Amino acid sequence: MKKGLLALSPLVVFVALYLVTSIVAGDFYKVPISVAFLAASIYSISITRGKLIKRINIFSRGAGSAEMLLMIWIFILAGAFAHSAKVMGAIDATVNMTLMLLPSQMLLAGLFLAACFISLGIGTSVGTIVALTPIAAGVAQQTGTDIALVVSAVVGGSFFGDNLSFISDTTIISTQTQGCKLSDKFRVNSFIVAPAAIVIFVIYIFMGQGMTSPAGLKEVEFWRVLPYVFVLITAMFGVNVMIVLTIGILLAGIIGMAYGSYDFYGWLGAMGDGIISMSELIIITMLAGGLLAVIKHNGGIDFIINHLTKRINGKRGGELTIAVMVSIVNLCTANNTVAIITVGGIARKIGEKYAIDPRKRASLLDTFSCATQGLIPYGAQVLMAAGLAQINPISIVPRLYYPMAIGVAALTAILFRYPRRYSK
Q1: Which pTM does this prediction carry?
Q2: Within a 10 A sphere around the Cβ of 215, how many other Cβ atoms?
Q3: Is residue 326 part of a domain?
């Protein structure tokens, strides 16, 4: 018991240093999140047994794992694409086109709906956020709307596809670990989250009533929109997000140089500035990966899982345990895919023991992991959106209504045995 709590104590250090001190100070900019992770990381290494070099190696392997490096590559490419496209004029042109095509009262709801459909097509919340966040930030600035609110609509909508798409990692892994078909899981999942999406869409319509498109919009230069159009369309066809961003960078450079937005060296400079803008995000990602690797090595995640599975009573208890397990591990790993992989096998054993439908199990794993991932300020999605919009990630979290809604919907599905057909 004591060993397990000690293994989890670095998370307490992180929360205390970042959240508590920020709340006391009344300013979330007082303590940089990277400093909080650094302090927690040093503490985690100090409480781990063994030679110092071995403890550092455990941390380093977590910070430089394949999953962490993949995210970092995406962050680098996203930064280079976003800034080179911005300097080329893609954001301003896309914002003008958005303002021209959508009624003012539908801007907020329209961005949420666009994020839902794009993420459903490409199967990744990160790719959707990369494509739409600069546009959302531009719309907010042009209309005088709270930028955190507009960006949160995109982030929230991006989890719609992350949770439901046939090509989403979370969907594939949750169905594989529970032994059910993608189409069956999609059907059950839709019953749970579709009502939540509709409710949030209606709420955004009402919240967007006060938004007004600015007068005197410039004529839309459609050729400047091409990089974003290319990224969205190719991503929707399932092309790897790294390939999409690489070609998007080249396209932005070609168009920008062809129309005099910058020369070759200006394009390289824009890419460099974009990469530098992601530096804190990259540092946070590596520190979080190392910290969580040490926690796992010390038995923290195993402690959580074993402690939760001791007192299961019936189907409802089994489903709640699966939900709590994947949510807590997601909090510890800041990665919903890793969380599902970690608890998938245990969730299947629990489900088989208490005759929980595998389609329901897969849906709960995916939905609760997405809800948790969407609400943690140190998750890749929130950090990415905050980095692209140049705002504090904490300012986005209270406005992430869709992740909150699907969490409530999934909990309701457990408590009220819904959908009935898959809850018998």
Answers
A1: 0.72
A2: 5
A3: no
